[in-house]
Specification:
Blueprint lengths: L1 H26 L7 H21 L10 H23 L5 H6 L3 H20 L4
Helix pairs in contact: 1-2, 2-5, 3-5
Length: 126
Amino acid sequence: MFLRKLVAAVCPLLLCILLSIALRWMDGLSWLSGFWGYAVKGLLLGFALALILPAGGVKSHMNGLQPWFLGGVGLLVALILLQYLAFAGVLRLLLLELLGLNPQMVLMEGTAVGFMLVTVILNRRR
């Protein structure tokens, strides 16, 4: 029982430390600067966020929500691509101009995509 509690306390902490090291390393890569850097960092954050509970030993089950999560992933990926096209000047959308192209939005959308993908993978029906 003590080992299980130790795993629940230490594994999420180790995951956060590894994520911090990875994000710092990614800051030094020139090809991950700008728009796609925020998207990739968001995906990595979402992966880590979805892995915190399983790393601590918590198990959950989804009852038929996988297609809905995948639909949400598709919508968010489409939104990220639209934002990139607007950022690159290829596409002009009034709604995106009103919202503004904020890198933190791309980071948050990438985080949601990563979280939902890992959640669907870990909780698929067997």
